[in-house]
Amino acid sequence: MSLKTLLFPLLTVAGAALMVACAPMTALNAVVPKRSQLTADVAYGGNPRQKLDIYRPAATAPRVGYPMVVFFYGGSWNSGDRADYKFVGEALASRGVMTLVADYRLYPEVTYPDFLEDSARALAYGLREAEALGADPARVFVMGHSAGGYNAAMLALDSRWLNGQGQDPKQLAGWIGLAGPYDFYPIVNPDAKPVFHHPDYPPNSQPIDFAKAGSPPTFIGAAKDDKLVNPQRNAAQMVAKLRAAQVPVSYEVYPHASHITLAGAFAWPLRFIAPVLDDVAGFVEKTAPRTRPTAMTSIESTSPARAYPAPTLAGTNGAR
């Protein structure tokens, strides 16, 4: 038995403990190498929470512009700060992906749907300003983890939100959801109940209801034993519905990740837990490849394409 095999369970537990204990995740950010040109505190609206940070790759820009990801973090819609997710911005920038990490208003300042309106405004900023920022407007993705995965799914699948900002989901190259809740009523998590007016849930607020033909190409990642968001009810059922509608879907279940470390694995100290950075960067490249020769330097190589298992369905409730 190899040393890695012996140490893996211990390291996974240690990684999870680090992520839980360090919220905000300053410990991870402290050891993340700088691979980007950071522009912080960019306002996309007038509220103090309506700001984002831009991580530009340090490598030479492609002639058509970098691909762009607009990222939303989780926290049950009542906690989180964009500065805590520097490790996500730096990781994607190291793979040649311009990354916008956005804040949005949180409970108790707001409830559903105000944080979706903020998220739509941030994504619309990315779509509108992509070319000026050095990105390719045809290669813009929306991405989120946990509650942020819900935000990303709603923006990509339900046109109300981007249409309200003069944009449309058809402009997206794709969307990426990591441990996201897509079908979660009745809510179990007490922190999330007031956000969605439990028990008087608003109609048309579940992403699963908007998965249909013509939806953007999709990457869905889930932790196999996620204790907060049921991966069968949420990830697997979303994948099944999108595939039934002939939407291109890449699907990965990570056996060694938890709900928290699925995001933490973007940081190099925790990448042994799950190859989520390789998979997301590979999805971006294969979904919206560069159309002309480019001059790229100092970019970490991505792993080969992965095979994705078919989803299974379960009727259990997904808690957040």
Provide a descriptive summary of the structure in words.
The relative contact order is 0.16. Strands 1-2-4-3-5-6-7-8 form an eight-stranded mixed beta sheet, sandwiched between helices. With 320 residues, it is an alpha/beta fold. Helix content is 30%, strand content 17%. It is built from nine helices and eight strands. The chain has helices spanning 3-21, 26-30, 86-93, 114-133, 147-157, 159-163, 232-244, 261-264, 276-287; strands at residues 36-43, 51-57, 66-72, 98-102, 135-145, 174-178, 218-223, 249-254.
Question: Which tags fit this structure?
Answer:
single chain, 320 residues, alpha/beta, eight-stranded mixed sheet, 9 helices, 8 strands, 17% strand, disordered N terminus
The gist of it:
By secondary structure, the chain is an alpha/beta fold.
Give the H and E element order: HHEEEHEHEHHEEHEHH
Low-confidence stretches: 1-24, 292-320
Main β-sheet: number of strands, strand sense, barrel status?
Answer: 8 strands, mixed
Shape verdict: globular
Structural class: alpha/beta
Number of strand elements = 8
Helical region count?
A: 9
The overall pLDDT, averaged over residues, is 86
Q: Radius of gyration over alpha carbons?
A: 18 Å
Main-sheet strand order equals: 1-2-4-3-5-6-7-8
Q: Helix proportion of residues, in percent? A: 25-40%
Question: N- to C-terminal separation?
Answer: 37 Å
- Tell me the strand percentage band: 15-25%
